[in-house]
Structures are given as structure tokens and as C-alpha cells.
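Whiteboard transcription, Tuesday session. T.W. wrote the C-alpha cells on the left side:
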């Protein structure tokens, strides 16, 4: 797994409201290790399965991974703070450098309800990373923040999207790649939306790749803190 070495011993935990590190060795549940309560574990829903290996998780087949039926506090926490960060260390499969399209992207991680309704998401559209955050009446979180360079398959990549009342930013490997002035803070978020990884909640749009970490904050991490997390790598405490 390609990850930077020689960085600080730990990542920032200020404002952390959800953290999935995939340290399980088997089973169908992934623990939330953020320390925020109540915890938000993720569960694999049939059909399909996942494999775990050295702090990573890889969906196999048409898997739906999501939080449970109860409302998660993640949405409400962001509404209260008026700022958000969604972070992921992920690696597309060797043949997964071109997945989804601009009109039908595949979701990597995010709070969503359907293909047309998202509070926040990291996605893949063709050969590019895409981020969406609902800061306008657009129920799908547009306009898209689309990475400037093609995805490199088989390489662990650090993705972060932040949003507050001033801007939305997509970071790729610690650097701000797309900056979009925001008309306001996260807007019209639906508190019923679940956290989903690697597929839409209804299935049918599987993202093929591997997860090393997913995290969510109720603040917009500064560029310095994003760089800290990138340098620390996905395995840092």
C-alpha cells in the first residue's frame, strides 16, 4: 500500500465525529473508532462480502455497506456546526481507473439516500475523483468538485472534501485540487441519511477498490490539518 512515511505519529482528532479504520479481521461489521457517541458501526448487507487485510477493507461482489436503520448523529452534528470534512484513504482496483460517468458516478463514501439525494459524498466519475456537498438547494450536492488529474489505479490515495460558509474544497493527496466559493454553510441536510461505502444504498453501482480509512468531522479542516493527516498516513492513530 502506497502511503507516505516519516510523518507525525498521529492524525488530528479535533471535531472527529466518525472514524472507520477497518482493523477487523473477519465478519460483516466495521467499528466506528472515533470516540464520538453514539457510535456509528457499518454493516455489510447481502448479497456480497468483504475481505480484510492489514487495516484495509475490500468489497467483493455487489455489496452494500451502510450504517444501521437508526438515525446517525453525523448529519445533525454538521447542521449544528455549519461545517464539515469527509476524508478517505482509498485505492481503486487495478482495473478500476475508469468507473462510473459524469451523469452516473459511483459512490465511494458519503451520507446519502439515493442516486439523486446526498448530503456529502466522495465519488468516482470515469477517470476522475468527484466530491459533492449540499450547500445549495441542489439535493444531489452539486455543482461537482472534479479532480484535475486522472486517477492512478492500484495506488492508495488520500481524498478530503471540506465545506463551510465560505468555500468547498477537494483535496487530493494533501493538496487543494478544486476550490469553489460556497454560497453558505451546509444547507438543507436531511438528518435521515445513512453513511454508505462503495455502493448506493439500493445497490447496483458498485465501486471496485479498497478502503484504508474513512473519517468525518463537524468542522472544515484547514489545509494544514489536511496535510497533517496526509503525511501521517492511513494507519496513524
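and on the right, the sequence the group agreed on:
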Amino acid at each position: 500500500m502506497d502511503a507516505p512515511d516519516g510523518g507525525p505519529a498521529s492524525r488530528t482528532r479535533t471535531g472527529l465525529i466518525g472514524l472507520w479504520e477497518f482493523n477487523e479481521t473477519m465478519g460483516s461489521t466495521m467499528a466506528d473508532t472515533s470516540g464520538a457517541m453514539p457510535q456509528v458501526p457499518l454493516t455489510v448487507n447481502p448479497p456480497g462480502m468483504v475481505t480484510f487485510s492489514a487495516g484495509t477493507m475490500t468489497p467483493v461482489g455487489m455489496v452494500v455497506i451502510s450504517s444501521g436503520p437508526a438515525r446517525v448523529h453525523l448529519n445533525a452534528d454538521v447542521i449544528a456546526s455549519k461545517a464539515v470534512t469527509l476524508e478517505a484513504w482509498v485505492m481503486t482496483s487495478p482495473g478500476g481507473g475508469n468507473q462510473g460517468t459524469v451523469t452516473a458516478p459511483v459512490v465511494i463514501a458519503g451520507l446519502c439516500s439515493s442516486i439523486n439525494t446526498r448530503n456529502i459524498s466522495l465519488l468516482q466519475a470515469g477517470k476522475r475523483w468527484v466530491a459533492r456537498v449540499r450547500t445549495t438547494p441542489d439535493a444531489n450536492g452539486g455543482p461537482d468538485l472534479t479532480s484535475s488529474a486522472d486517477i492512478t489505479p492500484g495506488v492508495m490515495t488520500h481524498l478530503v472534501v471540506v465545506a463551510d460558509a465560505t468555500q468547498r474544497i477537494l483535496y487530493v493527496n494533501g493538496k487543494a485540487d478544486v476550490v469553489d466559493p460556497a454560497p453558505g454553510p451546509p444547507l438543507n441536510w436531511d438528518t435521515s441519511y445513512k453513511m454508505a461505502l462503495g455502493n448506493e444504498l439500493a445497490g447496483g453501482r458498485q465501486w471496485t477498490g479498497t478502503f484504508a480509512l474513512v473519517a468525518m468531522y463537524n468542522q472544515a479542516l484547514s489545509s494544514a490539518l489536511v496535510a497533517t493527516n496526509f503525511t501521517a498516513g492511513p494507519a496513524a492513530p
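Someone added at the bottom: The longest strand covers residues 84-92.
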